[in-house]
Amino acid sequence: MLLIKEMMTEDKPRERLIEHGVETLSNYELLAILLHTGTKSQSVIELSKQVLHRFDQLKELEKVSYQEWVMMPGIGMAKACTLLAAVELTKRILQNREEKVAQIQTASDIYHHLKHQLSHLEQEHFYTIYLDMKNQIIATKRLYIGTLNQSNIHPREVFKHAVKLAAASVIFAHNHPSGDSSPSLADYRATEQLEQSAKIMGVAVIDHIVMGKNECYSIKENRKYHFI
């Protein structure tokens, strides 16, 4: 297999990165650095182009599972792990950046805070956002995966973190994989159950946001927000 170091100097992504800066590299060159090697029949550059050709948009890479990666020709266990780690690290960087929002004031703030985690998922994920007295984010925790209903959302799990973090208030959020953010009856019932538990714990529930594709719905405000 052809290693990056065996390529012509002008074709080496690492050397181009060092000499001209990482921002000058194309998508396939960045991917080639991660993959490191090609196969017996193709260079790492050709392999990178082949991988990217399989996807209509670059953001689709975050949807690819380990099993899907290793089924692709030229992508074994090591390459699959490297790619998954790179995608996850990128998501965490974006999340960390968005957690520095000074204050949460609207449903729109929550949408932008969580869109990178929730926009591509094919199952419902339930998150709780813990806030201090100034509505600043203390922590964001995923507490449940699966269709939302009263029986599978456990208030003790939600509010044990609130106590531990000394949170003054919480915001609930979950996604609808269909893309339609309109709440279901189960969403309303789960919200009511959690609000009752919050009163006992002395924690304020600011809102429950349902995330769709380029939109979200505020259950407390009864308003749908749309984003381009």
From TrEMBL:
Keywords: Hydrolase, Metal-binding, Metalloprotease, Protease, Zinc. It holds the Pfam family UPF0758_N. Gene3D superfamilies: Cytidine Deaminase, domain 2. Signal peptide: none annotated. Residues 103-225 form the MPN domain. It comes from the Bacteria. NCBIfam families: PRK00024.1 (NF000642), radc (TIGR00608). Belongs to the UPF0758 family. This is DNA repair protein RadC. It comes from Paracholeplasma manati. The lineage of its organism: Bacteria, Bacillati, Mycoplasmatota, Mollicutes, Acholeplasmatales.
